[in-house]
Write a structure and sequence with these properties.
mainly alpha, 0% strand
Length: 92
């Protein structure tokens, strides 16, 4: 059994709080687990693609030369990817 990740939990919370009727129907039909796993997997795959695209567009600084700048840029890329994923897959 796959473990539900961050994006699966975010989707579950969104459905519970903003689409409760949909959440209840999925719960009664026993499809919520499959749905959450699919969303989580799709979000992780999308995150990888976005991060690669961002790195191609704006390469990360050399980690050996300036580690702080590298961490800053990597965190910025991750935040951008997460924002896109939330809008595309989680909050729909």
């Amino acid at each position: 059994m796959e473990q539900l990740g961050k994006y699966g939990f975010l989707r579950r919370d969104y459905l519970k709080n903003h689409r409760n009727s949909t959440y209840q129907v999925m719960l009664l039909q026993d499809t919520i687990g499959k749905h959450l796993l699919e969303v989580d997997k799709a979000a992780r795959e999308r995150e990888e693609v976005i991060l690669k695209q961002l790195e191609e567009k704006e390469p990360l600084p050399d980690k050996e030369i300036d580690q702080i700048a590298w961490v800053r840029a990597a965190n910025q890329h991750r935040a951008i990817a997460e924002e896109i994923i939330l809008k595309e897959l989680i909050y729909v």
